[in-house]
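TODO from last week: model Amiloride-sensitive sodium channel.
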Amino acid sequence: ETRREVIMIMALGQTIYEDEKAYQEEQRRRRRLMRMGAKIKDSTSVEMHDVNEPRRAVNPEDEKPSSWKDALFGRRARKYAFIFIVAFLAVLTVKDVFDLFEEYFEYPKESDINIVFNDSMTMPNVTFCMSRAQAWSHFKLNLSAPADEWDAVVDESLANMTDHDSFMKQPWDYRLVMEAYDMIATYSSLERETTAHGSARSIHVFKNSPRLAAKRKTFKKWRDILDSRRITFDEFTQKTGIEVLRRSMQRFRRRTFDDDDTVIKTKLRISWISQMQICYQPEFDKDNYKTIDDQGVFFDMLLSHNAENTEDQKIDCMSVDFHGRPSSLNRFMEGKGRSRDGFIDEICLGQRHEVTAHVTALYQMLENDEQGTRCRDVEDGEDSEFNCRSRCRMEMIRDACHCTPLSLSYLAKKEDMEIFPLCDYTQCTVDVQKGNYSDTECANKCFPDCRQIRFEVDHSVKGRMLRPDLTLVELSWGPFEYLTMEQQWKYTPTTFIAALGGSIGMWLGLSILSLIQLVTYSYTYFTKKIVNEKILKKGNTFDRKDEDDDGDFSIDNGTERKKMSLAENPFAEFFPGGSPEQPKRGSKPNSRQASLDKASTHYKSHL
């Protein structure tokens, strides 16, 4: 008996739970249908509005609010508030998208700043410059000797060097060195160490001045020697510079922490010869180009000079440039206001000098043409800014004299040398009074390198040398870490599309796919509605069946299969006429007796 009562109570509880659940579901269905405008007839049936039946005209008086609450929170107020919010958010979206496009087409940049900690540093391109008086201090001139004796020694020496190899390998008498140096320095001064108009004026003076007749004759002799032995002007410059420095250079070497175990062969390269100074650089081949792995001295140079010949002269101090510029006079070939970091010009004679350098910053900018920051990336085989400006000077002289300047011939191509041979300025006619010679227009196209390095140089004098005719220069490297700043574009195509998607989705929740669908829908609407209506007005007809063939796929919404397309209105409802009519359900039992009867029936079935 107890078991039967328990089963009956459990069945009664289950029935009550199911009836309550059905009642709640019915109430939700009725509220949903009322929101869609359905008319409730009784507890079990509803009357849906026929979408094909014309709606009754709305009386304007019925739309007026009946109270202040209805005016502030009624249906019309909520409708206008919704329209205002959507319009306001749409304006914000359009503004954000417009600002994004405007910023994108300004090509904005951003910079990343980091500190780099290195285990080693690259050997810098160091340039040493000394004055001509210091370089010539070993040459003892006998001013009382006749000129014929000088010429005889020069001619005899040249007669013993009949071919290219002997000319380049045999040591020269100091008279040959001085004549060759004077020739190279004169051409450099004419062609490079002045402005464009100053170069034209110097060429005019060199051609017509009577006091330079002997120099013109000497240069003509050397030109014939070079042509007969097939020696280029650049080879001639290197040989002359090495012969000048051979008498002064006592030590010129690259040093490492383990000097006893590592020997690095260091060559000498002449970068500049002029009437004021001679400049040179250490040069290494591929096998001897080593990085700087330890702080401290990495290069030293020991020079000698003839103290007797320089005793009554004021000798300019030497200079060291860690940027590797060809000379300390390159201000004539570069733009204005450039930084002079990494440069020291206080290496005076008879002293021991220690020069400590380290990199403070490395800037990598993007190529641009903006005033003040314009630059170009210099790739292998391309001209640096200095060579670009030198090429402009070469083109200016070619236009004036129809020949290639000797000191700039290293920039010329072989095929161009047949059209523009090396210059013989005695055949060049320059009208200095009426002519206006300038290379500014060409030089404006020469941009600095986008990769800029900034050095900090500390110089200290460690006292005088024991021998007054010696000068010691030691180059040391400081810390290996430095600051880097690298520019990059703020937007790439991928990041721009992502930013655009964020802008249109921020306020209205749109996406790129929504925009594509909206554009497609607008195009379809204008082409099939407006255009076809105009055609119909003219008496033409079109097949309405074509309109139904735009669906790309179909969706079953429960009562029908509906064709969907990218041309569909993205803001349209899936059920245009509201929710489909729900099937009728039985009425909810309202009495407890009915529940008990149902439970009793369930209990009897168990028995």
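Done. Confidence is low (pLDDT under 50) at residues 541-551, 573-592.
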